[in-house]
Amino acid sequence: MKVVLCGPPHSGKSCLRHGLKQVIQALNRKGQAPYPYFITACPDGEGSWYAETVSRDPILAEKLKKNYKSKFTPEFAQRVADDVKNTPLSFNLIDVGGKIDDKNRLIMQYATHAVIISRDLSLVADWLDLCGELNLKVIAILESNLHGTEDELESEFPILRGSIHGLKRGEDVSNRLMVNKLAEVLLRLIE
């Protein structure tokens, strides 16, 4: 299973990825989930290390992010697309950039499923169209509410829908309702 975390920029994709990573790795250590492989498919300098570093040392995290940030070139996109296509692991989460363009199309074409997260639900339709074009099964549509105070679950079937609040860098979001619901949905799919 190759699941793309996609949606417009500044919607919390990387924060969601980190929360999922914490939840699923904790379950993996208990023998309740397969090992999750995370692919950072955007050269924005926010790899998996970033969320952990920013919570301990925000100044260092920003400095390193600037050093790691690079251009989103066709060569980078092809390299990541090859990683997505050829990963031998059974459970993969791919954090893509926030633009609908040829580079993300190239990367996403090898995925099987998608989670769409957006700070503005009016922008979801374009991402649904892209996922349809690439034959990706959309398993969740989440509204990111930066200033909200609690998550809201709207429905679990056939698509997980709801809102997730306060996806802020450096904040532990692994205990959020929608992060845990999404982890449950993902794990049911790979059973």
Automatic annotation (TrEMBL):
<dbReference type="InterPro" id="IPR027417">
    <property type="entry name" value="P-loop_NTPase"/>
</dbReference>
<protein>
    <recommendedName>
        <fullName>AAA domain protein</fullName>
    </recommendedName>
</protein>
